[in-house]
Model the fold of this input.
Amino acid sequence: MQRNWTTRTTLLLVGLILVVLNLIGLNVFFRIDLTDDRVYSLSEASIETVRSLDDPVTVRVFFTADLPAPYSSYRRFLRDKLDEYRAYGGNKFQYEFLDPGSDESLQQEAARYNIPPVQVQVIENDNLQIKNAYMGLVVEYAGKRETIPVIEDLSTLEYDLTSAIRKLTRDRLPVAGILTGHGEPGRTAIETFWRALERNYEVRTVSVKDSTLDPRPDVLFIIAPADTFSEAHLKAIDRYLMEGGRVAVLLNRVNANLQFGFASEQKTGLEDLLAHYGAVVRPDLVMDRQSSVVTLQRTVGFFRVAQMVEYPFFPIATRFNPEHPMVSRLREVFFYYVSSIDTSAALPEGVERIPLVYSTPQSATQQGFFTVQPAMLPDPENFQDGPYVLAVALHGTFPSAYDSTRVGQPARLVVVGDGDLVNEQRYGGQLPPGNLAFVLNIADWLGQDEALLAIRTKSIAPRALEPVSEGLRPFIKYANILGPVVLVVLFGLIRWRIRRQRQIVLTT
Done:
């Protein structure tokens, strides 16, 4: 009787605990995310965005059901992410899934939202077939809408959604200006960067008229100028910075050409202005053992053979300032003939200079006479002079280069020793993701929209195992196979032994 009463009490307590946990779960939302970048949890920027909504946001998802892997996981990941937005947004955030399938009216609706069908491979009736599928969504707010036509990269999903909501809810978009008139590359060369920048900014070309920037942007990008700046144009940039401007300068200090195998120092007049602010870009080229490859054509007998060789003038940076939000979460950035930045140069009073990106310690530089032909490069084993600083951020009250009596307003400046950082033509027509994330982070830091920095650099990557020796591998293999079985058996023996001892005590 006592035993039955104890069992009933235990069941009652367990049931009561479950009820309490369910009540807590209805009112308190939380999750445990053990991934490095917390890719399965919303960032503070996303949470604040949906919590501060004035009017309801509706997300209409056009997604074909019953798709094979990996597209089925896309749908599940998207639903989980939208559930989390709704948990923080409450009634101000709603979503619905629609399956166009064979529904012609839904297909027409998706077309009106510029959501196209995409072709995916499916196996039906033991045959590989091509099927049209929908994997897009539209975000609607106060009569306006933003469309994500195709969900392709889950690691950028939160950034895309939050950017769309912020774009719809803002009274006006900040203006990001691209300076022109000094031999800068056209839009075709930076199309990927331009289109990505348009998610959160109104992107406009900027020129100098009557010693002022026209139009005056919130953030100004100066990308790979090749021609000399007139004094009036330099004064316009100086005036903009004195007025609290935000400037990013991607500067080619050396004009290098891989095809013809030559390089020479390049001067535009901008480097002297930057030096006045404390950002000295040296007229050198950084060589790094950690680099990209180029294709060389070699003659072997009667044949021409293509050979891939590492080219140290195309460094791959993986060393970033862990304390700065602009770069702390980046993994790698590719450079194309990059110059180093002198962080020992004189710094104006009231200005702080922060190194952002470094080469590896196994790096060196060329200066004065350049040898850039792949077949004539020095032995990379001798590169031991690094690391070199490749990009810096400066902020504070900058002194005017033309009016010593003028006191400027707090401003921000980013300088990178590579003007081709966003020139996708230098990277075979496809801009590396790390480069794009870096320059977009530059824009947000300059525009003081730092909340987006942590979202953009999230990534979903497989957890790689640490390499082990050949002798240790069999031990790990069989430990994983037999270990769980052995633990279960040991647990059973220990439990049996305890019960046996208890029975002996009771009988005595």
User: Anything to note?
Assistant: The chain has a mean pLDDT of 86. The first strand starts at residue 57 and ends at 63.
